[in-house]
Amino acid sequence: MKEDFLQGNVACAEGALAAGCRFFGGYPITPSTEVAEHMALRLPKIGGTFIQMEDEIASISSVIGASWTGVRAMTATSGPGFSLMMENIGYAAMTETPCVIVNIQRGGPSTGQPTLGAQGDMLQCRFGSHGDYSIIALSPCSVQEMFDLTAHAFNLADRFRVPVFIMSDEIVGHMRERITIPDTVPVTPRRSLIRGELPFRAGPDGVPGFPAFGEGYAVHVTGLTHDEKGYPKATSPKAHEELVMRLWNKVEHARREIADYEVIHPDARDVFVSYGAPARAVQQLLHDTTDPDIGHLRLRLVWPFPEFALGEFPNARRFLVPEMNMGQMAREVERHTCCEVIPIPRLGGELHMPGELHHILEETR
After folding, report:
1. Does residue 170 surpass a pLDDT of 90?
2. At the N or C end, where does the chain have fewer CB atoms within 10 A?
3. In degrees rounded to 5, what are phi and psi of residue 255?
4. pTM score, two decimals?
5. What domains can you pick out in the chain, each with its CATH number?
């Protein structure tokens, strides 16, 4: 175990390497470029492969292909590049391709604010590709969590055979903090396909074994609706319903198992719900006050949304949701509570200040 002083994006790359990531396919884009730069520096030295692709469409395509050879694979991008990846993110969901996609969010839409932070891609992450599917998304609020959650993302991707997202932002990606780097991190490998099993026949948890290319399996991989052998069955309503329901349920039924959140002052009546950089402002507010009636639900895993976590505050009368967007996750809180929900949106790239949050809280009491 050692301590180091790292930038968030570099810690993200180091977390991936510690988890066994050995392929990175990407394209430079502010404010995520340091992830690619560090992977380009480190991967060749440990037997891995870094490829700068011609664009973000090719980047996610290369990651999907690399994953099917059995290696842990990742890409990193930001707003416009994330949009370009959406079609193949849907392909990864349909083909059950485990991979990690890092989005260091910036202000949008379009080119927007390349050098400033935002959280405007949270709903795009969940619903950006067409059709019904479920994914997993994590949101670090510190440089340490950039390392820890990136490493954890690979285990979730392999466990559920889904794309897993690190939904960070420019503020956390570019800040520098002291972190602890463990000698090893837990590694949960994807389950191999047993000889004789059908490549898309799920186990009890809804997840099939993984038949990596080059290991002697005859596997057909298609984005079309397919049967358990992997062959197209796109005109069958029954086959499509069964497949999509399984893709959905394998994640949604495990939401309690994979939930990751922090509860502070569970008896509070006024509760902040936060994720990513705004969580730091709430943490500072709680540090500066002795008011036990102010609670905090900090989400490290945002999708699937852990609605049951709201119940950790039985006395809550209002939830306040500071976000660097127009209230994307606040809508999710509203769906799952009868309490008053107060969105605290922020655009322009600047983070909420603790005093501002306290002022809004006092005004609404």
Report:
1. yes
2. N
3. -60, -35
4. 0.97
5. 1-258 (3.40.50.970), 260-364 (3.40.50.920)
